[in-house]
Amino acid sequence: MNSYPPSNNIRYSVLDLAVITEGQSPADAIQNSRDLAIRVEDMGYSRFWMAEHHNMENIASSATSVLLGHVAQATETLRVGSGGVMLPNHSPLIIAEQFGTLATLYPDRIDLGLGRAPGTDPATAQAIRPDRMQQVRQFPDNVKQLQQYFSSDNSNKINAIPGKGTNVPIWILGSSTDSAHLAAALGLPYVFASHFSPQQLMPALKVYRDKFQPSEQLNEPYVMPCINVVAADTDEEAQYLSTSLKQMFMGVVTKERKPMPPPVDDMNQVWDLRVKMAVEQMLKYTFIGSKETIQKELTEFIDKTGANELMIASYVYDYQERIKSHRLFSEIMKEFSVQRHA
Asked: Which residues are in coiled coils (predicted)?
């Protein structure tokens, strides 16, 4: 097992999908996301990212750049970004204009995380862009094209206006070693989707670090694994609250995506053994419990991965409990930093 020198200053950030819960409307979910961003800014979180998904009854973040403007307008210092924009769904020029506009409105606060997955089912992906598979193959070139659009010395006849000269920071998102090779070759920060695809986390981080080439944006490797967190006052309460998260991931396995349901007393009444095993495999890097429990497990994870920053997704049905989960995690990270400096 790899271990890394202890890092004393681990930043922590939020991934939010504007999750729609049972009984909620998309408008409710969007309002909660905006409110959560305001709250986590005060808690010391560094970033608030939203992710592009389509044709999912439980996620309202399909028009990601629009929602990022909604969040950035309500906050002051929080970095706001995509985790991510699925670039093969879009023209690089349009993304450059959208994020260039955001960066013009909110200077030095916008991040652009890019992925190559569809963020949806095959039929919807086809509806979004019939030539999508061709665009997937062009993903590395399209990332470079975006960098060119954002640069101040773009020599092309076509310019992103707004966008040119904004130098929006680009991050590469992935769940395999393919994305690690690209992030390393381009010298870009790397986000790994260990919150739902944990299997290749460590191999991908090794590839990224071993192959990293410094760039104008980044001198040395920077990794941000994404994890799930459900924090509460007690382990028992957190385990109960986490049943909503587990039911939501059941929907991924069974392809029956519905608004996130309330917690249940016994998951064995909800899933069978096959689904349970599949969900638990996906949720390997999920931290559920009291502050004490999570802090112990999290310290081991940070030492194992050498993470520079953590991004958390906290899928909790009750919105007030979701806020509390984020607050408890911020307290864990502040205490972690104090202990490492001691």
From this structure: none
Per the CB < 8 A criterion, the answer to whether 191 and 224 are in contact is: yes
C-alpha distance across the termini of the chain, in Å: 26
* Domain-embedded: residue 3: no
Give CA–CA dist 228/284, Å, rounded: 9
User: Which residue type occupies 234?
Assistant: T
Check which CATH number belongs to the domain holding 199 and give it.
Answer: 3.20.20.30
pLDDT in tens, 175-206: 999 999 999 999 999 999 999 999 999 999 99
| C-alpha span between 100 and 102 (Å, rounded) | 5
Quote the domain boundaries for residue 106: 11-341
301 neighbors 285 (Cβ within 8 angstroms)? yes
Pairing relationship of beta strands 190-192 and 79-86 according to DSSP bridges: unpaired
Q: Kindly state whether residue 4 falls inside one of the protein's structural domains.
A: no
Measure the CA–CA gap between 202 and 266, rounded to whole angstroms.
33
Preceding peptide of 84 cis, ω within 30°: yes
Check: CB of residue 113 under 8 Å from CB of residue 81. yes
pTM over the 0.85 mark: yes
